[in-house]
Design goal:
The chain has 14 helices and 11 strands. It has one domain. The strands form 3 sheets. A 7-stranded mixed sheet has the order 7-6-5-8-9-11-10, sandwiched between helices. The chain has a two-stranded antiparallel ribbon with strand order 1-2. The protein has a two-stranded antiparallel ribbon with strand order 3-4. By secondary structure, it is an alpha/beta fold. The N and C termini lie far apart (about 70 Å). About 30% of the residues lie in helices and about 15% in strands. tRNA methylase which 2'-O-methylates cytidine(4) in tRNA(Pro) and tRNA(Gly)(GCC), and adenosine(4) in tRNA(His). It comes from Trichoplax adhaerens (Trichoplax reptans). Belongs to the methyltransferase TRM13 family.
Length: about 450
């Protein structure tokens, strides 16, 4: 029989505002909070575990703030913490790909921005779109490596969506000469490694002449690279568990004379910027050290522009030249969520101030879910903007996304005449392709 001894024990008394319920973890005997939420404990919450009649304090781990540790056990914990292995890596360099800004304006909720300022920015966007084109070239392609999956799953809507996106990415890679032998493919924000898996399938004829490095800061289950690691004749796959912001690609060991190609699918907001900076830093350092590896190009599928931040943004100078400042940037990032807004005519137009405030101030904005972009867009300013702008909110959101994308084309770190092409496929995604943009 199953052990039901825990059923009678009380659960953690910490209330989770976002889930609107109490934590379901079971604390230690004598405690009222579980280990994760002991960080928020006061003297009234603890009955046991005191030192010299003083409360034992839990603090965030300095190596990984996602978990906590007792302060008096910190020294011992640091010797055993799993995050320690990341910081000891040869290619770990703290904030090497960040924007290196000492101070930046904190992001204010859109509901706190004066309506006049928001309307001024929107009018400025429309004027800018007339003066210079912000639209992007459509290049929706297919690739034979995914034909069987696409044809064999006509009713699997969600699966088909991803297959078509991956086919378009690989098709554009082939079009611009990024499917090649003697190349190392770096997948940023790899997740389960689906994109690398299908790129490897497309390059099956080259086998041992390509390698894949998959970078992600989280552990993932059901990884597709496991399908390749057991194949000794296939391409080499290696995982790097690290935040892209701290990954010094120039220190990574590549085969001599092999090109480096960056790939990524659904790089949310600032992740795109730190990935581009990672590649640019690699090329600049390799040119100084006269190494043989060069960055051939990059292809990145973008999303979640509302999660961009000024510190990481790669082309702040050009953005300022257009007459915008940091506060305008933050507003434009928030307005970009309107492009995927789920609010339509069939729904009630009377979104309450309470709903708007809860979405804007809640943790939903900073969460990792891309789906929150549509929730954010549907609740903002519905009761404040006039009807004309409310009907054009998706168009305004697209203008914001296009502005954030097109400024990458004028990134001054890239060589003169660099070609950056954006391809829109589906509502959320833009494809950024850089061809030989990092060549010396």
């Amino acid at each position: 029989m199953a052990d039901n001894s825990n059923n009678s024990r009380p659960h953690c008394e910490y209330y989770l505002p976002r889930k609107k319920r109490f934590c379901r973890m079971i604390p230690k005997v004598g405690d009222r909070l579980c280990g994760e939420h002991m960080l928020y404990a006061s003297e009234a919450y603890n009955e046991l575990g005191n030192i010299n009649k003083q409360e034992r304090k839990r603090i965030p781990c300095p190596l990984d703030s996602k978990h906590t540790v007792y302060e008096d056990k910190l020294e011992k914990h640091l010797k055993l913490c799993n995050a320690r292995h990341t910081t000891l890596s040869d290619y770990y360099e703290k904030e090497v790909n960040s924007g290196h800004i000492s101070q930046s304006i904190s992001k204010r909720p859109l509901s706190d921005i004066p309506e006049e300022k928001v309307l001024h920015i929107i009018n400025k966007l429309y004027k800018l779109s007339k003066d210079q084109s912000l639209s992007s070239e459509r290049s929706i392609l297919q690739h034979h490596s995914l034909k069987e999956e696409i044809d064999g799953n006509p009713d699997a809507t969600n699966a088909i969506k991803h297959y078509l996106q991956q086919a378009s990415i690989i098709g554009n890679m082939e079009k611009f000469g990024l499917l090649r032998s003697q190349a190392c493919y770096i997948e940023f924000g790899a997740g389960r490694g689906k994109l690398s898996h299908w790129v490897a399938r497309a390059l099956s004829e080259y086998n041992n002449k390509v390698e894949f490095v998959l970078i992600d800061r989280a552990n993932n289950r059901r990884k597709l690279d496991c399908m390749h690691t057991s194949n000794k004749m296939g391409p080499k796959f290696e995982r790097v568990k690290m935040d892209i912001e701290h990954f010094n690609l120039a220190k990574y060991s590549f085969k001599a004379d092999w090109d480096v190609i960056g790939i990524g699918k659904h790089l949310c907001g600032a992740a795109t910027d730190v990935s581009l900076r990672c590649l640019m830093n690699t090329q600049s350092q390799n040119s100084k050290c006269r190494t043989r590896n060069s960055v051939r190009g990059a292809i990145l599928a973008l999303c979640c522009h509302h999660r961009c931040d000024w510190k990481s943004y790669v082309n702040r100078e050009y953005f300022l030249e257009l007459g915008f400042d940091e506060e305008d940037f933050n507003v434009i990032c928030s307005l970009s969520s309107w492009a995927t807004c789920s609010f339509h005519k069939g729904q009630s137009e009377g979104v309450s101030a309470e709903t708007s405030t809860s979405v804007m101030h809640g943790k939903e904005i900073g969460s990792d879910s891309c789906a929150n972009e549509s929730n954010l867009g549907s609740a903002v300013f519905q009761s404040r903007l006039n009807q004309d702008f409310r009907q054009k909110r998706e168009e305004i959101g697209q203008l914001c996304k296009q502005l954030l994308n097109v400024t990458l084309e004028f990134e001054t770190i890239l060589c003169e005449g660099a070609e950056v092409i954006f391809s829109n496929f589906y509502l959320q995604n833009e494809l950024s392709i850089g061809i030989n943009v990092f060549s010396i």
